[in-house]
Amino acid sequence: MNGTAEVTVLRLGHRPGRDERMTTHVGLTARALGADRVCFPDNAGQSKATVSDITNRFGGPFDVELTDSPQAMLRNWAGKVVHLTMYGERVQDVEAEIRAAHQDDGEPLLVVVGAEKVPFDVYEQANWNVGVTNQPHSEVAGLAVFLDRLFEGQELEREWEDADRQVIPMATGKRVESIDEE
Ligand SMILES: C[S@@+](CC[C@H](N)C(=O)[O-])C[C@H]1O[C@@H](n2cnc3c(N)ncnc32)[C@H](O)[C@@H]1O
């Protein structure tokens, strides 16, 4: 998000067909809630296309990338790594420490979410294994709560650049306006 070190979300694992919507929603949630970039496995090209299309229409900046080696990206990350897992430390216990590393020390953050079973070396490589509750639920829900805690709600105030449309908030009904380029 503007003014802080970069936050990248890494989606580990993608089963074509079965994970299509979940992987796309990881990307859309990362974008909407303040991350700068999402990285999908290279078999998730359809999800990349969908998230890029939303960014083109509703604004950014937000990058979508594919990687042929998520594990290498994790190993070589020049910053801190948060792995979201139901087995991790409670988000409310570690969020301040993570925020300090990210905002005060300017460490780029890699936030890792899984799909199927996550290899154990990911737990070892992470600086923090973080549980959003220690109950099983979803990578999309875990990511949303984690980003909102990380940014302390500031991401909700974000302004979007280069959008060609915007939603006008209203109590009832749906209104989307085109944005004219100057
Ligand atoms: C449906 S879960 C499958 C996890 C798999 N059963 C395992 O043992 O690693 C997919 C992903 O959702 C995320 N997730 C699920 N529950 C979570 C929780 N309570 N806190 C944080 N992340 C969670 C994790 O990133 C996980 O890898």
Alpha plus pi helix count: 6
Architecture (CATH level 2) name: 3-Layer(aba) Sandwich
By CATH, the topology is Alpha/beta knot
Class by alpha and beta content: alpha/beta
What is the residue-mean pLDDT, rounded to a whole number? 95
Give helix % range: 25-40%
In terms of per-residue confidence, which ranges show pLDDT below 50 for 5 or more consecutive residues?
A: none
Count the beta strands.
Answer: 8
The main sheet orders its strands as: 3-2-1-5-4-6
Order of helices and strands: EHEHEHEHEHEHEE
| Structural domain tally | 1
Provide tags for this entry.
182 residues, alpha/beta, Alpha/beta knot, six-stranded parallel sheet, two-stranded antiparallel ribbon, 8 strands, 36% helix, binds S-adenosylmethionine
What does this structure look like?
Keywords: Cytoplasm, Methyltransferase, S-adenosyl-L-methionine, Transferase, tRNA processing. GO terms for molecular function: tRNA (cytidine(56)-2'-O)-methyltransferase activity. Belongs to the aTrm56 family. The protein has helices at residues 20-32, 45-58, 70-75, 91-104, 120-125, 139-151, and strands spanning 7-11, 37-41, 63-67, 80-90, 109-113, 128-131, 165-167, 176-178. Helix 1 (20-32) packs parallel to helix 2, helix 1 (20-32) runs parallel beside helix 6 (139-151) and helix 4 (91-104) crosses helix 6. The protein is α/β, with parallel strands linked by helices. The protein has one domain: 3-Layer(aba) Sandwich (Alpha/beta knot), CATH 3.40.1280.10. Strands 3-2-1-5-4-6 form a six-stranded parallel β-sheet. S-adenosylmethionine binds at residues 84-86, 113-115, 117-118, 131-133, 135-139, 142.
